Every structure is written in structure tokens, then in C-alpha cells.
Amino acid sequence: MSDVDRAIAQIADIRAQLAVSTRFSGYAPAAVGGIGVLSVLITLLQLGLPGRFAANDRQFIIIWGLLLASGFLLIGFEAVVRTLRDNDDMARHMLLSATRIVVPSFLVSAVVPVAILEYSPEAAWIVPGIWQMVMALVAFAAFPSMPRKIVWPGLWFLLCGMAGIFLAGHIGGLTPLLVGGPFIVGHFAIAWVLSDRETFPRA
Amino acid sequence: MPDMDRNTPFAFDGLDRVFHERARLGIVTSLAGQPEGLSFSSLKSLCGLTDGNLNRHLAVLEEAGHVEIEKGYDGKRPQTRCRLTGRGRAAFAAYLEALEGVLQKANQAAGSETVMRSWKERPA
Questions:
Q1: Where are the transmembrane segments (chain A) (predicted)?
Q2: Residue A165 CB-half CA count within 13 A
Q3: What domain range is B33 assigned to?
């Protein structure tokens, strides 16, 4: 490797650092808010028609899993479109670093419920708590490239995830509010954080 | 602008003079990965500068709008914190892109020189 190649590699490294610590504006608050609205609708349906939409824990997992997966795809698609529209190399670096945080979490959130439903369906009640704690981890990991208020939705999801597991274990199963409540508040809170026009550097 | 780039490929207009100085490049690179900024003393030891030198270079960066300096307290001790502004981040990203372009051109030039040398030194 020549000196020039080494210098180019160092520049790439500095650009990556700059991208990680610069606010990523690819996430659309409207898309996250939309998932919050859908969460309200699902919770109302489950409260109104429990026999049809909240008959057992498996049904909770499938309904909320589909909502969260479609939400992830919608937000991801929106982020890619916004980044490509910017046509900015820096924005692409930032999209890549956001992907490194979100995709592994998404895979864990998808694989764990499938494995639980397949091999240990009686433990399905722990899945929403796991999802919420994974969302908390994503929020904390994204802190350097997000407005600092992102810690509040992160804390909310973390506490709800832990409390949800305790309560579901105590009650002996999932309830619409136990699952829906944290997602409704959490998604609206993230949308509020993303709509913040706070610019770097932070105050 | 693209036409100008084609006509003067070695003008390197993107190399902002504010960043293109060893001490200031060190300061901005140190701040690049720190969204919360760095204290004056950390910056001083990271960049190996004296108080006077660091102050002078920070003033240049602040005047250009690339760095923000905030005086506050860490507990009871007064502390000065320096951060890259949003504008500074964008400008530094553009500078790095331009610098990378320069190095890639140098790499290409070095590559073609090596080919020419090996052509000249080939056995008759």
C-alpha cells in the first residue's frame, strides 16, 4: 500500500466518523407517526374485538410483527429515497451507518419470535417486551446522529419492555394495552423527536 | 461549474484554505467524530498545540462559521467547549471529498509515471 493509498484510507475513515456523528435526516417523522396511528387502530380493534384480533398470544405476535415489519420497510424505503434525492456522498455514508445499527436489530426482532412461535409457543408473551427493548437499543445506539431527545423514547421502550415482561408473566398472557400502549406512545415520541429541527452542534 | 472543472482539473478549488492548514486540519479532524464537542484542554493535548496557537486557529475557524466555542462550567471549574457547527461539518465533508480527489489524481499520475518508467527501462 502506497502513502497515497494510506492517505485515501485515512480520509475515508475521517468521513465515516463525521457521518456517524452528524445528524441523519433520512428518517421521516410522518412515516413513524403513521406507524403510531396504525398502532392506535390495531389497539382499538383488539380492545373492541378481542375474540377476533386478540384471541391468543400468537395472534398478538403475528399482528404486531406484521405492523412493525411493514413499518420498518416503509421507514427504510423513505430513508433510502430521501438520501438518494439529496445526492450527497455524506448522506450516503450516514445511511450506511444507520443501516449498520438498524438491520441487525431488525433481524434479531424477526428471528427470535419465529423461533419462539416454532419451538416454544407457550413463551410467546415475552416477544413484545423483547421488541421494545430492541427498539430501545436502536434509539440509544443512534444517539450520536439523532437529536438528544431520542433518549426519552429509548428509555420509554426500555422500561415498557421490562415492565411488559413482568406484567405479562404475572397476568399469564398479553393484553391489547400491554402491547399497544408502549408502541403507540413510543412511535409518536420518536416522530416528535424526528420533527425536531435541532441542528448540530447540540446546545 | 462542471465545465470549469473539466478545463482546470488541477485548480483544486474545493480545498478550503481555512481547513488546509496542518493545525486547523488537526483541530477539525479531532472534532469531526464528537457531536458534543471537545474541551479546550482535550483539544490542546490531542493536537499538540500551545494555548496561544490553539486560540488563534480556533478564532479563524470560528470566524469562518465552522466552529462554535462555548464557555461554561464543568462542575465548579470553568470550561471552554469547541464544536463543529452544522455548516462546518458540511464544509469539512466537502473539503475531504476534494482532498480525496486530489490524492486519487496523484495516484493515477504516479501509476502512469510507473508505466512510463517501466516502458523506458525495458530491455532493448
A1: 27-49, 61-81, 93-117, 123-143, 150-171, 177-194
A2: 13
A3: 2-120
Q: Report the number of distinct structural domains present in chain B.
A: 1
Extents of the domains making up chain A: 25-194
A130 Cβ contact list (under 8 Å, min separation 6): A109, A112, A113, A161, A165
In the predicted structure, residue A202 carries a pLDDT above the cut 60: no
CATH code of residue B13: 1.10.10.10
Task: Find, in chain A, the residue whose alpha carbon is nearest to that of B32.
Answer: A18
pLDDT digits (tens, 9 = 90+) for B10-26: 666 777 889 989 999 99
Q: Which three cell numbers stand for residue A52?
A: 377476533
Q: Which of A9-13, A107-111, A179-183 has the lowest mean pLDDT?
A: A9-13
d(CA A165, CA A26): 32
Average pLDDT of the residues in A17-41: 84
For residue B34, the chain A residues in CB contact (below 8 A) are 21
Nearest-by-CA chain B residue for A198: B86
B90–chain A nearest CA distance, Å: 8
| Contact at CB, A200 and B92, closer than 8 angstroms | no
Around A68, how many Cα atoms within 13 Å sit in the side-chain half-sphere? 28
| Beta carbons within 8 Å of B47's beta carbon, 6+ residues apart | B23, B26, B27, B30, B54
Q: What is the pLDDT of residue A201?
A: 40
Amino acid identity of residue A157, one-letter, is F
